[in-house]
Amino acid sequence: MRIINTKNFPKRAGKAILEYKVDESEPKRDEEYIILPLIPRADLFFLAGGNQFLFHIGKERNDHWDRYWFGGTDENPFLVEITSKPLNSY
Q1: Terminus of the chain with fewer CB atoms < 10 Å: N or C?
Q2: What is the DSSP letter of 24?
Q3: pTM for this predicted structure
């Protein structure tokens, strides 16, 4: 198992406290905590001055699509999976 140093990873998205865990397969929220999986095919993009983010997990060989979550803080911490592709490239 490769150890990833999360020391320089963002610790917050607004009021939401970000945690990174190797043993998680997808993001989840527990009150003010948002737990993000530490996997090589994941990307984290901050929005709204760092208060919100888009989390992307690239598809594995047998998956049909990539998966995306929108999270952070609006009035309170939130995390929702986006069911359609949020980005297009041309």
Answers
A1: C
A2: -
A3: 0.84
How many other C-beta atoms are found inside a 10 Å radius of the C-beta of residue 27?
22
Q: Which of 49, 48, 45 is nearest to 69 (CA)?
A: 45
With 0-12 CB in 10 A as exposed, 13-18 as middle and 19+ as buried, what is 90? exposed
Q: How far is CA 9 from CA 29, 41, 84, in A?
A: 18, 16, 27
What gap in Å lies between CA 68 and CA 28, rounded to an integer?
12
The encoded tokens of residue 66 equal 């990539």
Question: How many residues are given for the chain?
Answer: 90
